[in-house]
Amino acid sequence: MAALLVRGGLWRPRGGGLVLLSKSLLTRPVVACTTTLDRPTLAHQIHISPRSYVLKDVLPSPQQELVTFSNRKGLQCISPLMRSVEETPQPILTKVKGHIPKWLNGSLLRNGPGKFEFGEEKFNHWFDGMALLHQFQLENGIVTYRSKFLQSDSYVTNSRHNRIVVSEFGTLAMPDPCKSIFGRFISWFEMPRPTDNSSVNYVVYKGDYYVSTETNFMRKVDPETLETKEKVDWSKFVVVNGATAHPHYEPDGTAYNMGNSYGKHGSSYNIIRIPPQKSNRDDTLQGAKVLCSIAPAEKMKPSYYHSFGMSENYVVFAEQPIKINLCRVITSKFLGKPIADGINWEPQYKTRFHVVNKHTGELLPGQFYSRPFATFHHINAFEDQGCVVLDLCCQDDGGSLQTYQLQNLRKAGEGLDQIYNSIARAFPRRFVLPLNVDSSVPVGQNLSPLSYTSASAVKEVDGTVWCMHENLHSEDLEEVGGMEFPQINYSRCNGRKYRFFYGCGFRHLVGDSLIKMDTETKKMKIWQEDGFYPSEPVFVPVPKATAEDSGVILSVVVTPSQNQNTFLLVLDAETFSELGRAEVPVQMPYGFHGIFVPR
Question: Residue 333 — very low, low, confident or very high, per pLDDT cuts 50/70/90?
Answer without folding.
Answer: confident
